[in-house]
């Protein structure tokens, strides 16, 4: 009888993990809201992450999927002509070409743009910055 109780708890835990993984998929991997949705304690999530390699792998896949979604959204913004999205992309993927969101210590701002300066610019001004670089 004791063995059945352990198996019953084990199945229940697996169901809770599955429910939490489904919630994590819906929240793009955000832990706190997913735990609330699945009614699983946040610390339990971290315990499962440490103790269950399959759970950890499934969670990491969800995180990667959410990053793919965010990148696709960013590329859509860029293709729609969103200058701020374009500058954001360039500042992260084209640093080797001089794009950076931090100010240059030598005062050279032709290639290094300050994010605060960019926030106040119009799309037309931002496209001029992009085309001049």
- Give the overall silhouette: elongated
**What is the distance, rounded to the nearest whole angstrom, between the alpha carbons of the first and last residues?**
74 Å
Question: What percent of residues are in strands?
Answer: under 5%
- Low-confidence blocks of residues: 108-113
| Largest beta-sheet details | none
Which labels suit this protein?
single chain; 133 residues; mainly alpha; 7 helices; elongated
What does this structure look like?
This protein is an all-alpha fold. The chain is built from 7 helices and no strands. α1 packs across α2 and α4 packs across α5. The radius of gyration is 23 Å and the shape is elongated. It starts with a helix and ends with a helix.
In short:
The chain has 133 residues and is mostly helical.
What's the layout of helices and strands?
Elements: H1 2-26, H2 31-38, H3 42-51, H4 53-79, H5 83-93, H6 115-119, H7 123-132
Helix pairs in contact: 1-2, 1-4, 3-4, 4-5, 5-7
């Amino acid at each position: 009888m004791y063995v059945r109780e352990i198996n019953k708890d084990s199945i229940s835990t697996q169901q809770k993990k599955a429910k939490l993984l489904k919630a994590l998929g819906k929240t793009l991997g955000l832990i706190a809201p997913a735990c609330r949705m699945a009614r699983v304690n946040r610390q339990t999530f971290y315990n499962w992450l440490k103790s269950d390699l399959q759970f950890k792998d499934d969670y990491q896949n969800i995180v990667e999927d959410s990053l793919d979604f965010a990148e696709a959204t960013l590329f859509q913004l860029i293709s729609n002509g969103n200058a701020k999205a374009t500058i954001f992309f360039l500042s992260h993927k084209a640093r080797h070409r001089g794009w950076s969101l931090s100010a240059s210590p030598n005062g050279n701002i032709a290639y290094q743009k300050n994010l605060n300066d960019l926030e106040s610019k119009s799309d037309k001004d931002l496209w001029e910055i992009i085309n001049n670089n």
